[in-house]
Fold this sequence. Notes:
- Helix content is 58%, strand content 3%.
- It is mainly alpha-helical.
- Among the domains are: 53-82, no CATH class; 97-179.
Amino acid sequence: MTEFNVNEEVQKAAEKLHKELQEKSFSGRNPQLGRMVNCSVCDSRHRAAQVCEQKFAMGSSRRPVEDQILLVAAKTRNGVLGAKQFKGKRLKPHPSKANLQLIQLTQDLFPMHFPFYRVPEPENATPEEITKQEIESATNAMTAARVDARRMLLQKSYLLRRRRRRQQDISRRINQKKDV
Ligand SMILES: [Zn+2]
């Protein structure tokens, strides 16, 4: 059995730790502090360990907690998540060229699908119930139309790619014949 000189071992470990600490950066020596963040709540830059919470003006304490916040903006996405991550972004992003095609084709196909998804009105149905039913049928028909449209566009792009590939093969063959 090897006998350890405890004092020597401790001394070695302490020296090793000391050397490691000297080589490490501030965040390496203090990993519990977390990385630096641009805090959108207090509008300054600090360590992630410091968590800032938004404080809003509160109303009567007799009301339930979620209703006590007086500022309406506090309940919007900017109020909850901060405006920073939404800055410079469109509320409704413009569709890409491919998506525009999909939207157009879906709208064109919709009238073909709609009759199949229509449900006859139940008797004694209130106007609200009828409206709800119509919206549901239209949504289902629109979903089906979109599935169809997506399939058609995929098929079209596949055919286009295949035609291009064949054209390449033919041209290559013609060029090879010329070379000979
Ligand atoms: Zn902060």
